[in-house]
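Lab meeting tomorrow. Look over both lines:
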Amino acid sequence: MQIIKVWDLPVRLFHWLLVASIVALFITGKMDDAIALHGKIGVFVVGLLVFRLLWGFIGSTYARFLQFFPTPARILAYLKGEWHGLGHNPLGALSVFALLFLCALQTGLGLFSYDEISFHGPLAALIGDSLAVRLTGWHQTLAYVLLTFVGLHVASIVFYRFVKKHDLLLPMLTGRAEVPENVKPQPATGASIPALLLALAVAALALWAACGTWIPEPPPAAAVETPAW
């Protein structure tokens, strides 16, 4: 076997920070006294997702979306046992894109949420309360859909580890994977410090936008004079 670099450090950090954030969001979402923290973690996830979106175009070889995009031809080749690439396999890529989409949708709904008690999402002021309440209902329902997909993702990792004898977890920790000597894959290349700084800068800008601090305060309500009876 030979050791090949597959996952760069930014991809691995994104993966595990997103895992930790999802766990924390599910926990804090069930705690009334932690809802403010829940919102802050959600804003942090916005930055993570924006970073990963940009890194999917300017990151290293196997971080790029075009490298593992699940085209019908790739899926068919994988099902026939004719796919021998590195990184996400075509079925795994479907899972990755589904999870990224669900996380983005769930986070977006959370930014505009309103629980009719005390919590306003950081961007809820941009829409009316009635719409914010409706989006909150969708946000709560979608949480279980996301949890289901996360469970399927974990189950597939366990299946590959113990049934197909292919460890998907270790490479996401070390960044390197074992491949047979007769396979000549290309080690991951292409990531650069300027690209990383650009992705971090855009993610920081997204964080600022998601915080809603740029939204002007509503004007104070007009004082109502009490009649002198």
The mean pLDDT is 92. The chain has one domain: 2-211.
